[in-house]
Structure formats: C-alpha cells, structure tokens
Amino acid sequence: MNITAEMVSFFVSIIGAFIGGFVAISNWQRANREERDKEDAWKSTITNTLTRLETRQQVMNEQLGKYQQSLSDLTATLTQHTAELSVVGIVARRADEVSKKAATDLAEVKTDVKNLDSRITKLEK
After folding, report:
1. How many CA atoms lie within 13 A of 90 on its CB side?
2. Entry pTM
3. What is the mean pLDDT of each run of 10 residues along the chain (125 residues)?
4. Which string of b and e fits 60-70 if b means at least 16 CB within 10 Å?
5. What pLDDT was estimated at residue 73?
6. For the segment 33-64, what is each residue's pLDDT rounded down to a tens digit?
7. What's phi and psi for 58, nearest 5 deg?
8. In angstroms, rounded to a whole number, what is the distance separating the alpha carbons of residues 68 and 66?
9. What is the DSSP string of 27-74?
C-alpha cells in the first residue's frame, strides 16, 4: 500500500485536531482550576471572617455576663444599703424624739430649780 500525500495530510490533520483538542481541554481545565482557586480563596475569606465574628461574639457574650453579674452585685449592695438607711432613718427619728423629750425635761428641771431657788430664798428670809 502506497502512502500518498493526501493520506499524510489527512493524518497530520487528525493529529493536529487531536493535539488541538488536548490544548482546548487543558485550557478549559486550567480555567476551571483558576475559578476553583478563586472560589476557594473567597470561601476561605468568608470562613475567616465568620470565625472572627464568632470569636468576637463569644468575647462580647463573656463581657455581657460579667456586666450582668456586676449589675446584680450592685443591685444587691444597693438593696442592702437601702435597708441600712431605712434603719438609720428610724434611729434618727427616735433620736430626734428623745432629744426633744430631753429638751422638754431639761426645761422642766430648770423651771423646778428656779421654783425651788425661789422657795429657798423665801424661807431664808
């Protein structure tokens, strides 16, 4: 069998088409790989951002818990001081009443002393 120029040309065309197909597939795979790499980078960025946000949320939740505990402690302290001030108010009112009574009694004693002094003076004369 004689190989003619047309046969060689045909085989070269087939081999060229075959190589062209490989090049096209290679380019397509490279483009897909680049697209996947971009998607992976984007997913990684999103994942990192979400991780940072979750960490920040955990820190804020811990701080909120501390603030709530501090507020609870402050409320308890204020309640205790309010009760103590109530007792102090009762004691102060009672002390005021006793002071007024003592002032009244002292005024009566002074009057009685003056009266006794007057009687003693009359008796001495």
Report:
1. 5
2. 0.46
3. 80 90 91 93 96 97 96 95 90 91 92 88 78
4. eeeeeeeeeee
5. 96
6. 999 999 999 999 999 999 999 999 999 999 99
7. -60, -45
8. 5
9. HHHHHHHHHHHHHHHHHHHHHHHHHHHHHHHHHHHHHHHHHHHHHHHH
Cα separation, 17 vs 8, whole angstroms: 14
Tokens of 25: 């597939």
Token digits of residue 24: 């096209």
- Distance in angstroms (rounded) separating the CA atoms of residues 53 and 47: 10
